[in-house]
């Protein structure tokens, strides 16, 4: 495995900052409200830039975070699955994105791309990439789901025909709400511990994922933002957002990593929607579009 250098990490950092700006620019095409921008530092080491749009005309909330932090030991969220990393210093940098649209016909989406480096004296650094993107619709449109997964497959194909099926399954398995016995959404791709190629090839894949997220989401936003919706449909969106919150607070390793690393709470929890509801014993009407979401879309399936 090629050893990582400061030049490598600088190239990754510059790309991630560009990606953050490109995603903000994409959102601004449709929602003209400006993002609040916070530059922050962390006592243990590093910092980040948190950019959040709230109460827009198209989006209830969008968070586009960049962070580059370091510390003297990796949190349990990382070492539980890789015990050989215990006791190592680390650097972790990445971009995390969550978009919560106002219109329930526009899906919520999530993107994360990240680089981890674990250091120990007199030992070569261990590095790996992780990330992916997934989509959580409130009302299902087959053409949107197919476009989303087709884009994901196109991203993966140049790197091996086995990559998309493997990373799609990872996504289906990971974004699953065990206590509800249901998927969070229709998935996408998800991967961790990516270091099977030389550094530059792994970095190229990360760039394809970050750039591909914009190609996957923007056409759906453009197509759905003018759809009319009822109070009932907005209520269903808020109900389904509750499932999103449950996953992020109970299972999401990124949230747990942030909390365990004494991260900036406002940035870690930017993924939370501003409006959400937990209606007791919510009833899904038979034959409704809401039931269609459960029966046709919230099931792992081959979209492309």
What does this protein structure show overall?
By secondary structure, the protein is α+β, with helices and mostly antiparallel strands. The protein has a single domain, classed as oxygen-dependent coproporphyrinogen oxidase. The protein has nine helices and nine strands. It has helices at 6-30, 76-79, 142-156, 163-174, 199-224, 231-250, 253-260, 265-268, 289-297; strands at residues 36-41, 46-54, 59-71, 89-101, 108-120, 123-136, 176-177, 182-183, 187-194. Strands 1-2-3-4-5-6-9 form a seven-stranded antiparallel beta sheet. The chain has a two-stranded antiparallel sheet with strand order 7-8. A hairpin with a 6-residue loop joins strand 4 and strand 5. Helix 1 runs parallel beside helix 5 (199-224).
Notable characteristics:
globular, 304 residues, oxygen-dependent coproporphyrinogen oxidase, two-stranded antiparallel sheet, seven-stranded antiparallel sheet, single chain, alpha+beta
Topology readout:
Elements: H1 6-30, E1 36-41, E2 46-54, E3 59-71, H2 76-79, E4 89-101, E5 108-120, E6 123-136, H3 142-156, H4 163-174, E7 176-177, E8 182-183, E9 187-194, H5 199-224, H6 231-250, H7 253-260, H8 265-268, H9 289-297
Helix pairs in contact: 1-5, 3-5
């Amino acid at each position: 495995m090629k050893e990582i250098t400061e030049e490598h990490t600088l190239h990754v950092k510059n790309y991630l900052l560009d990606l953050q700006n490109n995603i903000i620019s994409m959102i601004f095409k449709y929602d003209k409200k400006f993002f609040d921008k916070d530059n922050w530092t962390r006592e243990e080491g590093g910092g980040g830039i948190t950019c959040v749009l709230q109460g827009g005309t198209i989006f209830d909330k969008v968070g586009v975070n960049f962070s580059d932090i370091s510390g003297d030991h990796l949190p349990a969220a990382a070492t539980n699955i890789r015990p050989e990393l215990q006791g190592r210093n680390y650097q972790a940098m990445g971009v995390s994105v969550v978009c919560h649209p106002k219109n329930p016909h526009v899906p919520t989406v999530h993107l994360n791309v990240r680089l981890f480096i674990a250091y120990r004296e007199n030992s070569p650094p261990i590095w790996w990439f992780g990330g992916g993107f997934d989509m959580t619709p409130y009302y299902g449109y087959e053409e949107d789901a197919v476009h989303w997964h087709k884009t994901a497959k196109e991203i993966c194909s140049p790197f091996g025909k086995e990559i998309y099926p493997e990373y799609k399954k990872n996504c289906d398995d990971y974004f699953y709400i065990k206590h509800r016995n249901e998927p969070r959404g229709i998935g996408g791709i998800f991967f961790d511990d990516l270091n099977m190629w030389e550094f530059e090839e792994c970095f190229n894949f990360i760039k394809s994922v970050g750039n591909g997220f914009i190609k996957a989401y923007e056409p759906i936003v453009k197509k759905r933002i003018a759809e009319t919706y009822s109070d009932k449909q907005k209520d269903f969106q808020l109900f389904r957002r509750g499932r999103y919150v449950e996953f992020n607070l109970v299972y999401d390793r990124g949230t747990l990593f942030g909390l365990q690393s004494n991260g900036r709470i406002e940035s870690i929890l930017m993924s939370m929607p501003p409006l959400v509801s937990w209606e007791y014993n919510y009833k899904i009407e038979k034959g409704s579009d809401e039931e269609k979401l459960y029966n046709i879309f919230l099931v792992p399936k081959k979209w492309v």
